[in-house]
């Protein structure tokens, strides 16, 4: 069986790129043929290792050449390139004799079901359903309205696929009526060799310093708690356009001496293992891999119940705490509870590590193989 994945490029360090790399490597190691078709690779090296047995095709379209244009010009140029994309992709799929073609909702998502190449088509959604709306602040009413229109358009696209795969059971009711719906989460990207002993007076949060992650609110929460725990430090890992503002905010809140901005690092396993509690205050997620990674090294977590993911990952009171979205007071109190009690951190961390095995690659990939076999039989 030959499975083809469509994505813009594999030189980026994003979560979807890592997920696809892990999937295709697993497939070729288990007797399947795998191919990645890109539009914008342009000869750039892959960020994540990909087995040499994985076939590679780049269509040479380079949508990213339009990134610096105004939104309307970018939309028009992209639209003009779409017919070329459709023709080249269909020709390659016919040449490859693909059995399954998978879109991760890039440029091909809107037209892939129309291609007459004989393969069964799967669409993956790697975000919450309402992301197009939630990615804008609540005060941006026009942008949120446009976002809701995009969500409605996404529904029309998803309905046309042989199978539509989302990441969380939490989101399943939101796609009621979709007979082609399946839930398969992403797998853990690594098998950790280290375990957190949760005795360190370190808290950790990881992510891009952008609106989605809501780090300003995390600093506000930490300012409520930090004065009572002067020996504790909050370590923030990641980079982004909000970084300078977050540093200023930490100073204004009087907590700069208890906040460490660590930047982006390659060895996140060590960072998790040297911490005692993971914190997440995101406005929205898909299936937050950072939460899974923290669990896998035995970290208890305190997380907002944002859409979507935390409810699937954390069992409240057993391996972490779930907090209603934007309830800073409860978040701070749950954090205090864990910081005061090392034995509770240890017990919850052990439960978190056990729970994380639900997302092992050898647990998740057989679900995909079962789906592939069901579609082609």
Automatic annotation (TrEMBL):
Instruction: Name one matching Pfam family.
Output: Glycos_transf_1
> Which keywords does this Swiss-Prot/TrEMBL entry list?
Transferase
Q: Which residues form the Glycosyl transferase family domain?
A: 195-353
One function term, GO molecular function aspect:
transferase activity
Q: Where are the transmembrane segments?
A: none
Q: Which CDD domains match?
A: GT4_AmsD-like (cd03820)
InterPro entries associated with the record: Glyco_trans_1 (IPR001296)
Q: Which SUPFAM superfamilies match?
A: UDP-Glycosyltransferase/glycogen phosphorylase
Name-wise, this protein is Glycosyl transferase
